[in-house]
Amino acid sequence: MGYSEMAAFALATFFLVSSPGPNGALIAKTVPTSGILAGFANVAGFFTAFWLHGTLSILGLSVIIMQSAAAFAVIKYIGAAYLCWIGVKSLYEAFANKARSNIAAPARRPRSLKRAYLEGLLTNGLNPKVSMFYLAVFPQFIPHDGHPIASAYALVAIHSAVNISWFSLVILLFAKLTKVTRTDSFQRLLKGATGVVFLGFGYKLATYRAAPAV
Prior knowledge:
Helix content: over 70%
């Protein structure tokens, strides 16, 4: 795999990673309430999930899931239920704390690093679209004359590096805006927006249909 192919994949991955999605919504919710380290713990969860999906794709297990309607439906609905659960929880927190004073502490129960990591892991690990992305792009970028497994893991590494770089910038941006983002009014607005976004992504995932196998 040459540098041009790697650059093309990195560019495609950048547009995928930087587009609005549940990862960005989770970071936006985590950093103002639980701090910068919790945000990086989210990213560590993303990183682990990418390598999990990449390994499953390389081993061919993702192909089985994509070709089995029942298996795909189970993963899809579990992932959708998890996203919706985050959405409902965020909306509840937004409206339940509406009567609190603006000088109230912004982080009622800050996430532990373990919890933040698991949230990042589950947000991506339960999303079959990650495996579908790998299955779709691997054949286009893996050279026929090279080592397919090594090339595939190289693509996963590029995807992970782009993800870490982008969300590190996002985390640092939210950290710079700490004074604004930690006011009670902003917290309620953010939780409400996060709830709507996650419910939307949950519905989108639940109603998503994989392309038929050819």
